[in-house]
Amino acid sequence: MNRGAARRAAKRERSAEQLAERKQECAQALLNRPWVSKEEDAELYYAVKDHYEELRGWFMDKAGLPLLLTRTMAKLDKAPVGAQPWMGFEEFREPQDYVFFTYGLWYLESKTELDQFLLSEMVEQIREQMIAGGMDADWRVYSHRLSMARALKKLRVLGVLLGVDGDESLWAQNEERNVLYECSPAARYVLRRFPWDLTDARELRQLEDPVAYADTADGQNGRIRHRVFRRLLMEPLVEDRDWSEEELKYVQGQRRAILDQLEKTLGWNGRRYREGMAFFHPGLTSESELFPTQAAVSDLALLVSGELRRLKDEGSLEPQPDGAIRLTMSELETMLLRLRKQHGKYWSKEWREDLSSSELAALCLDHLKSWGLAERTAAGEVRISAILGRWQAEYGEEERE
């Protein structure tokens, strides 16, 4: 091969790599954002549009997730296999917030793009609709207004509801205040599409499947494949013990294909461990929130991981057959007190002095649970996944200084 041909081949190879990376960026954005808006990120929107057919085919074939493309947005219609506490809106404090959020979407579906309306009109129609359905909504009650204000604010943050004049937080303080809104074209795409009439559903599990499956061997095989990929795409960690018998058989039989597919489409590095498959993002930044997070509680989790490894190496802890560690809450608290004594000078005043050992343990455990790395057993013990042992950290020179 002459030098000119070699340069052209290298250029084609670089172009192919750049194209693959761009498709991975599109897939990650669709998976982690509510949608990709043309107005907010035109470059990415057009990249998704360029790769639309390939992306739509992959998400539907592997996970059963429809990819929608309109003149203003691209949206992957995501449906988790099972709802998890961390999947909710962090800003919401009560179940009522979600009720008002949903009724806000109901109201917006009657509006056309750029329709303007007042908050007073909106909440009055929502109240009437809720009362007709046997639910309570009284805007004279401060807690109801505060809850509705949180729902409205979330709709604005998502870009579903556009504020023209005024602020719902002022209305929450004084019912006489008003706000002028405008309807966004994204409003009718927020709620997930279902392949059947929702009124036919009698159990929550009937809402888990994003598409209808034929009652045949091929239909059920497709359902298993979709459930496996959806969990791997949407949950931080799925161990072998978390799969059903049919799903585990698929995971074990298709292990190499699963690892290759997720690496090619999303750029994830997958590893097979004794306890199950785990996936890692190769870069420091990503569309996804990654573990360990930037929050200080992740530092605490890594210190616990290192302490567990030390105790295991000393023979003080005996792992379970799957590599997991079981502790009582008192043992976890004792471990954290020991870590506080050893590293407390690097911690915040709150962690060092204000929090009790039980509060510190609850903080750490909640963080690990949200990442699928720990759980409370029926016996009240703490089960810590062997996957946590893949991380270990200690304070460096910067913290010591």
TrEMBL record:
- Origin, by domain of life? Bacteria
Please name one Pfam family that this protein belongs to. DUF2398
InterPro entries, per this entry? CHP02678 (IPR013494)
This chain's protein is named TIGR02678 family protein
Cite the source lineage.
Answer: Bacteria, Bacillati, Bacillota, Bacilli, Bacillales
